[in-house]
Structure formats: C-alpha cells, structure tokens
Design goal:
Helices cover 32% and strands 27% of the residues. It is of the alpha+beta class. Strands 8, 12, 13, 16, 17, 18, 19, 20 and 21 form a nine-stranded mixed beta sheet that branches. Helix 7 crosses helix 9 and helix 11 crosses helix 12. It is elongated.
Length: 505
Amino acid sequence: MKEPASQSTNTSEAALEAARRDKMRKMQEMGVDPWGARFDGNQAIGAIRALENEITVESAGDCPTGQPPEQHGPKVRAAGRIVLRRPSGKVHWLQLRDWTGTVQVMIGKSQVGDEAFALAQCFDLGDLVGVDGELKRTRTGELTIFAERLTFLTKSLATPPEKHKGLNDPELRQRMRYLDLIHTDGVLETFLRRTKIVQSIRNTLAGQGFVEVEGPTLHAIAGGAAARPFVTHHNALDIDLYLRIALELHLKRLLVGGIERVYEMGRVYRNEGIDARHNPEFTMIEIYQAYGNYQTMMDLTEAMIVDAIRATGQPLVLPWGDRQIDFTPPFQRKTYDALFAEHTGLRPDDAAGIAKLADGMGFNSVGKHPDVVKSFVFEEKVEEALTGPIFVTDYPASICPLTKRKASDPSIAERFELFIHGMEVANAYTELNDPDLQEELFTKQLAGLPEEESMAKMDHDFIRALRCGMPPAGGLGIGIDRLVMLLTNSQSIRDVILFPLLRPE
C-alpha cells in the first residue's frame, strides 16, 4: 500500500532532521557548542567584497617556473548563513550570506587543520558559521575567503526548502517569514529598503523642524477617521476602549499646546477587510504644520517621496509591475471636478446625470446627498484611471468634515489626495480650526451612525481643545505600507508588512 504524500513528507523531514541532529552530536563530542557564542569583529560581507581592490598579485617573473602568480589579500572576518555547500575531497566550498551580500569560502584541510576540517564535515545548509581568512580570487576569478580558522555559531535543525521549488505559497511565505527572508530572492532587500524609506522620511521631517511624538494607541473614542474599530475592555476602569483608527485628533491637541510642527509614525487598526491594499493593522504617518495649508502639505509630500527614492539609491523612474512610475517633481495637480468631468463625461454639477450613472453601477442614490453619490462614482470610475503621481485637489466640502472650506467657495474643501496607479497614498487638508463649525459638522456626521462603524460619540475634549485656539495648519496622512509597495515594486501590501494578519494554523 502506497504511503500518503503527507505522511511520506513528514517521514522524510524527520529523517533529515535526525541526520542533522547526528552531526550536532558529533560536534558536541568534538567539544564544539552547536549554539555558538559571542563573535566580535566580524565585517559585513558587503564591506568585505568592497576590499577586492586590495588584492595584489606578484608579477610572473617573481614566481617559480610553472607556478601561478601568488596573491596577497586583506585578512577578513565574516559571519553568516551557509546557503550553498560543496564538499570536494580535501577542500570544502561554501557560500556564506549575511544581510549585505554573499561570498564564497574555501576550507582547505591543510589550511585549517584536521580538527577544523572535521568540524566542516558537520556543516549543513542553514548553519551559521564564522570564518577568519585571507580574501583572494580563485583561478576562475571568484572572490573567495580562504579560511584559516572556523568558528561554529548556530546549528540549523530544520531542512531548507528545496532550491528549485522554494517557498511558492504566498501564505506560507508570510506565515514563515523567517524562511522567506532567508530563501526567497529579493525579500530581505525589500524589507531593508523599507527601513531606508522610513528613515529618510524621518530625516526629511527633522530637516524641516518637525518633532516626532507618541500618542495613545488605546482610545476612549474611536475618532479621526470613518472606520470600524477593534474593541477591547479595560478591567480596572471597567470601560470599553478602541485600538486607534487614526492619529489625528491627539496630534491636533498638540498643535493647540504649541508644538507647531509635529508628527507621529505608528500602527493603526481598522476592523475591516483584507486584500492586496488593505491589512487590518498598518503603518501610517500623520503630520501637522502650524501656519501651513494643504498646498504646504503637497510640497512636503513631494519632498518626502523624492528624498526616500534617492535614499534607496534608485532612479526617479521606477518599475511598477509591467508599467513605470515617473516620480520626477513636480507631481501633476488637478482638481476633483476637472478629473470627474474628464473620466465620466458628465458635468460635476449634473446631479441627475450622476445619480443615473451611479444607479446603473448598482448604487442606490435615493435619499443620498448628491456629493455622496458623486463620491461613489469618483471612486469607481476615476480613481482606478489615475496613473500619477497626481494630487487630486479641492474635494466637495460636504464629505470632508475636518477640512477648512475655500474662502472663495465654501462648497469646496481645501483637501488633496495623492494617487499613484489608482492607489490612494496620501490625504491632506487645510485643517478646520473653527470649534463651532467643527462641532456642527461632527453632529451631522454622527447622526444615526451605528456604534460599530466609527466615531459613534462626540469627542467633546477635542472641541474643548479647539476652543483654546488651534493655529491655522496643514495636516497630512500617508500610508507607509502603500508607499513602500510603490517604491519596491511590490504588488501586495502583505509583501511589505513583515507579519501580516493570517488565520491561525
């Protein structure tokens, strides 16, 4: 009777682990700790490779007849994971990888001695080792560390994925991100690039005088956005609390308090769907500048993105799937109404025509405010057509309760959203700082709203803060994960979040 595939796989994996454990026992018999210890002074492999020009070669006239010219290279010390292993008689070849690159290692029995060479026979793919030696080239020109001393650092008991099959299941890659980082080409580089992008954003803001703060992640009122929150309960106070859905209202309190240029970068939580652009837990930055407006925020957004691209060493024209994105400033700027007319063929003030179009798309426009109907059509017909980067400006005021109105036309809000290939990346306002109007707009927004949907209670303390006087200001929010997607050519938000939310195994 044929053994089931899953049982066969488990048996094979158990046998491979048993072989690794046998090697571990042999190492212990040699007096080697399989879990290693402190290993000071190791150089990054990328830095070691940069020493290639220090290798010198004797002239042919200085060598005995028939002998190849002798090389002399710098002494180096590397530590990393074995990703390729090729025993060959009295020579053992390795490829060693750290987070900066890969280098070949030659372990010769006559160079390291019998004891160290016996230790090398116990090496497996995935093991972590340290190597001291001389950096030279092989006869084929391969840059190589010629080992003189070996230090064992950690045994890998798990067998790596097969080289050609790899980790092809996206959920398996996300669940076992540690293996994904080790074995999937480009994954480690993507996440290291993310750190450079985030650091660059902080550097740009620091250069313009902004300070970073930390606000609460547990809120008594889920405010600052229209989203469904996660609810938790605090036992000591016997109250329900919400994981924050936005950073806005606490940062504005700080504007009132006199912190004139302030931002926070951190996780926010929305109890909503999961797809290629949405994860319930994601990273956002919100920025507020006293005495600025939404035009100020446009300039700041553009500067942060361009600086981040340059910080990663990339050109301003980047690939995005089978397309390209040209981030050369200045980014395009067009009004909401101009884009609406361009992509729908309807006048922005043609409420009847817009309602008819919306109804034909499956939206019930009966009893809805015309701007709500218009917003639905814009989201469905216009946003996906925007290649960008493009700043969409001047939204209908009725759908922007936290935004200052245009002095020349109160029906228009001083707001922009940045779109890149149909994806909203940034949202910014000239902030509303009139406490009476803010209270009125909150009241209208909350009327009849179910508690689980969003801000079901008025944030009276925020209104009280506004009454103390919040300076005119520009405010900006950027989805960091989406920005990283675009700057790393990643098609799913789950490819740029180290540990996206998954169903339990």
